[in-house]
Specification:
The complex is a heterodimer of chains A (364) and B (596). Chain A is mainly α. Chain A contains 15 helices and 4 strands. The N terminus of chain B is likely disordered. Chain B is built from 24 helices and 7 strands. In chain B, 65% of the residues lie in helices and 3% in strands. In chain B, a hairpin with a 5-residue loop joins strand 3 and strand 4. Chain B has 2 domains: 174 residues, no CATH class; 264 residues, Orthogonal Bundle (ABC transporter involved in vitamin B12 uptake, BtuC). The chains are: A mainly alpha (364), B mainly alpha (596).
Chain lengths: 364, 596
């Protein structure tokens, strides 16, 4: 019954999951086992790039969950992604130990540089992996809980919600740019060495990070799928389509929205945490409103309200971005802008919508 | 004419400094080319070989450092300017110094002081100290005997003179009444320059040190003669400062009462000294009291300054947000490309300036309608091309207009350059309005404040008094009903969007006078504009006005305490919390349409 609900009725999701599983097996094989001369060999650069896309896909999944199923458009999901990333970055920074430029075993380089006396209290515990991982979900979750509780309780919806989430992420960006915040200011956190005892630079670690990202994405997809197909999910869709009617039918709309929002923020936090060791840096740029809006575009391109569409969208847009920025850097912003316009005007259901329409036509 | 003069002498140094005549040594290298005039104490860089520094007891470098430290650009310039006009008078007058009685000499000295020539204080000081010599020639050469050693110089040209020439000169005699008169005349010489700027500068210099009560009589005289109100003000202040040093405590109290009104930092320093050191407790009390009153006035002016900064920031926000308020309020369209429309307006200003160079005022005035048209047309094109297909889907509109903003930015970057474009300001827009030493207001900000209010009123009139405004409001209130009554809603939408975009363009003209004009400039305003609209509510334009001014004030009053970035963060947090209390802003839209 559960299998049928989760997988069998979801042909697109099944395809994406199978592809992801195949990647988990094939990418490490192509990178580690096949010799560099082989035409099927995948360089470590590609492994890291694909790993980065996987974390973006996870962020897109988090956004699709709230936008596609509860009609909550967050233009500030980068806030949760960034906070998760910073939590991971803090763990990695503490792992540098005395290998920094100043060789201080207690304080990260930038703190020595800014002449801190001791570690600020909010850095305590980040030398422990389990604590850092807890913070990766707790900090974004807590922020989402407070922010969402305030917003949904007073029925801030639609465009207003979108704008205040943007204010949130903008405020965070300004705050993290300040050196006084104790998060490395402008430069952020970088120069990482180890993650749970393995060198972040090592090829094996990168492949492992890739595999973990893919597995986390698969797990997150199944969890999200479980939520949206449950009774909880059906209420959410009712909220999305007619909020007042759902409220008048006796549902506590704000509770449904709030818990979904918190879950989505936690997913975004995990995505950020997986992103940081693979790119090797986290800085306040992750909080720029542009990044958050771009993430919404991934979902729009893939097709909102289908979950797997978000994954497809994240890969499609970021793949195109990687290709354009190396081949035609001048054209990229034109292409991105045009993509925004074309998708919203002509493809309101995204890439997934094309397949769906074709399938329906085939059925008829 | 190479007229410069140099007096070696420690006491003169002290004296000239006391009267605020510390001359710069910066331009001594121009001896042969420029009529440079430098009075420095103790050292002459050109002829250092002849004037043994050890003889003077100081090494020239430190003396130069000392003079450079007290260098004053205004004074330096003033010395050059005055020289040409008055030099001839001084040449003639000075030759009459040795002749006649003490009374004649006093009259000549008075005339000399009245010339305002910068050499005069030095010559008179030498006369006072009995170091001014005259040769037996006809007409006589007037020489200044160096304070130490046997050398000296020509009083007019500053050329060094051999010791035997000095020895042949006869001392010009002075007696005590003349000495007293001379002390005052030296003060006269420093503050009777023909140019009011120079007089003001001399007076400011006088204030830096304790002002001697000996020159009171002269100051009284100058107060009578002075025509420039600002210099009169300074004179009265200096006179009051001089009276702080008289023996009569009544007079001291009187002058403290007068000084209460001054905001000059020099006055505050002197009052501090009086408040701690004066022997009379009553005077000390009065000085303390005056200081408190000055402090509270300074606080008031600082508050006024913050108020002005707040209004100015608010006017910028108003300009940036008001176009958005129209498109959002009337059409429910979230236009993320609004900032880029502002940018287009700013680029139009730059473009017109490059088309008609040299006519800055004209090009700015031309730029206002031009920017309205250009940005408005871009807006109409956006509406017809994209937005009209997305009505009723505000979140999709948001994404589509964001895409348009990226395209516009990149277009500008490709067409012109990714670098900022220089936009010049006409004279009447630069500089500032000087109110008092604490408060001065930038003209550009004043004009932009006026301009923003003007745009606001114009828009209000369009919305309330024209048939377009009527239709726009009808569509905003109830779209299907308006259509049923024969309003062409599509046409109204296009014009409304064009109007909002045009206003953004006009805002760009104003903002080009304040900030850098570059492809990214729009992004700086988009979030702020949204905050204003969300805070003020979309019900009416007054909401935007109150929202913009409120946020501007809040930011500027927080800034002195928290710094700019933290102030901005706090304002953002405030808005996030405010929206919880009033989800539709300060002035929400009312009626049935509000829920749609």
């Amino acid at each position: 019954m559960l299998t049928r609900r989760l997988f069998l009725s979801d042909w697109g999701g099944m395809t994406v999951l199978v592809l992801l599983l195949a990647m988990v097996v094939l990418v490490p094989y192509a990178n580690l086992v096949l010799p560099p001369e082989s035409p099927w060999h995948l360089s470590t650069y590609w492994v890291a790039l694909l790993g980065k896309f996987l974390t973006f896909a996870l962020l897109a999944l988090a956004i699709d969950l709230i936008w596609g199923y509860a009609g909550i458009l967050s233009l500030g999901h980068g806030a949760f992604f960034g906070l998760g990333g910073y939590a991971m970055g803090m763990y990695l920074t503490r792992q540098i130990g005395d290998r920094g430029v100043y060789g201080n075993p207690e304080l990260p380089d930038f703190m020595v540089f800014l002449s801190y006396e001791s570690l600020p209290w909010y850095w305590w515990g980040f030398d422990m992996f389990w604590f850092a991982m807890l913070m990766v979900v707790l900090v974004p979750g807590l922020l989402a809980l407070v922010f969402g509780w305030l917003a949904f309780r007073s029925r801030v919806t639609g465009v207003y919600f979108a704008i205040i989430t943007q204010a949130l992420v903008f405020a965070l960006m300004l705050a993290f740019f300040r050196n006084e915040m104790g998060f490395g200011g402008n430069n952020g956190l970088t120069d990482f060495k180890d993650i749970i005892g393995f060198s972040v630079q090592a090829r094996e670690t990168r492949v492992a990070l890739f595999a973990v990202s893919a597995l986390v994405l698969i797990a997150a997809y199944i969890a999200a799928r479980y939520i949206v197909t449950s009774r909880f999910g059906r209420v959410l869709i009712a909220v999305r389509d007619a909020e007042s009617r759902a409220r008048f039918s006796g549902y506590r709309v704000e509770h449904y929205k709030l818990w979904l929002f918190v879950f989505s923020a936690m997913l975004a936090g995990i995505a950020g945490a997986l992103y940081v060791p693979q790119v090797g840096i986290i800085n306040p740029g992750e909080f720029s409103p542009l990044r958050s809006i771009e993430a919404v575009l991934w979902v729009a391109v893939g097709g909102r309200g289908s979950l797997f569409g978000a994954i497809i969208g994240a890969f499609a847009v970021n793949g195109a971005k990687t290709w354009f920025t190396t081949a035609y850097p001048m054209v990229w912003l034109f292409a991105l802008g045009a993509l925004f316009v074309l998708v919203t005007v002509f493809l309101p259901r995204g890439l997934v919508g094309i397949f769906r329409r074709r399938r329906r036509e085939g059925d008829a | 004419m190479a007229a410069w003069l140099l007096v070696a002498g420690g006491s003169l140094h002290a004296e000239t400094q006391a009267f605020g005549l510390e001359m710069p040594a910066a331009d001594l290298t121009t001896e042969t080319t420029t009529p440079a005039f430098g009075i420095i104490a103790q050292a002459d860089p050109y002829t250092g070989d002849m004037m043994d520094p050890s003889l003077l007891g100081t090494d020239p470098e430190s003396a130069e450092r000392e003079t450079v430290e007290t260098d004053d650009d205004l004074m330096e310039e003033a010395v050059y300017e005055g020289l040409e006009e008055t030099a001839a008078d001084v040449d003639v007058l000075i030759q009459r110094l040795p002749e006649g009685s003490f009374n004649d000499r006093r009259r000549v000295a008075e005339e000399l002081a009245a010339t305002g020539d910068p050499r005069v204080p030095v010559i008179l000081t030498a006369l006072l100290e009995g170091r001014l010599l005259a040769t037996a020639d006809d007409p006589p050469h007037i020489l200044i005997h160096a304070e130490t050693g046997r050398g000296g110089r020509d009083a007019l040209t500053g050329e060094l003179v051999d010791a035997d020439v000095i020895a042949s000169g006869r001392r010009i005699p002075v007696h005590n009444p003349l000495r007293n008169a001379l002390r005052n005349l030296i003060a006269v010489a420093t503050i009777s320059a023909p140019d009011p700027e120079r007089r003001a500068a001399s007076l400011r210099r006088l204030m830096r040190d304790d002002v001697s009560p000996d020159i009171l009589a002269y100051l009284d005289e100058r107060v009578e003669l002075e025509t420039d109100p600002r210099v009169t003000d300074l004179l009265l202040t200096v006179r009051a400062l001089a009276r702080l040093n008289v023996d009569d405590p009544e007079q001291r109290l009187e002058s403290i009462a007068l000084l209460r009104g001054s905001l000059l930092s020099e006055v505050r320093v002197r009052l501090e000294a009086t408040a701690t050191r004066d022997e009379d407790p009553e005077v000390r009390e009065a000085a303390r009291d005056a200081l408190d009153s000055i402090e509270s006035r300074i606080r008031f002016f600082r508050f006024t300054e913050n108020l002005f900064f707040g209004l100015s920031a608010g006017s910028v926000l108003l300009l940036a947000a008001i176009g958005l308020a129209i498109t959002f309020g009337v059409m429910g369209v979230i236009n993320m490309a609004h900032g880029e429309l502002i940018m287009i307006g700013a680029y139009t200003t730059w473009f017109i300036q490059t088309l008609i160079p040299g006519a800055l005022s004209t090009s700015i005035l031309l730029a206002i309608p031009a920017a309205f048209l250009v940005a408005g047309l871009v807006g109409v094109a956006m509406e017809r091309g994209v937005i009209q297909f997305l009505y009723g889907r505000p979140l999709e509109t948001l994404l589509a207009t964001f895409g348009i903003s990226l395209i516009l930015q990149q277009t500008v970057r490709t067409l012109f350059s990714p670098l900022n474009r220089p936009v010049a300001s006409p004279d009447w827009l630069s500089g500032s309005l000087y109110v008092n030493p604490i408060l001065s207001l930038t003209w550009s900000r004043i004009y932009i404040l006026i301009f923003a209010i003007g745009v606001f009123i114009a828009l209000l009139l369009v919305m309330k008094k024209t048939s377009l405004g009527l239709k726009v409001r009808a569509v905003a209130q109830n779209r299907p009903m308006a259509r049923a009554l024969g309003v062409r809603t599509g046409w109204v939408d296009a014009l409304t969007f064009g109007l909002g975009a045009g206003i953004a363009g006009v805002a760009g003209v104003a903002l080009s006078q304040l900030t850098n004009v570059g492809p990214n400039m729009g992004q700086a305003y988009i979030i702020d504009s949204f905050m204003v609209v969300v805070f003020g509510g979309v019900g009416n334009l007054w909401g935007t006005l109150v929202g913009a001014m409120g946020l501007g004030m809040m930011t500027k009053f927080l800034e002195p305490h928290t710094g700019a970035v933290l102030a901005k963060i706090l304002v953002l947090i405030f808005i996030i919390l405010f929206i919880q209390r009033r989800p539709r802003g300060l002035f929400p839209k009312k009626g049935r349409a509000a829920e749609a």
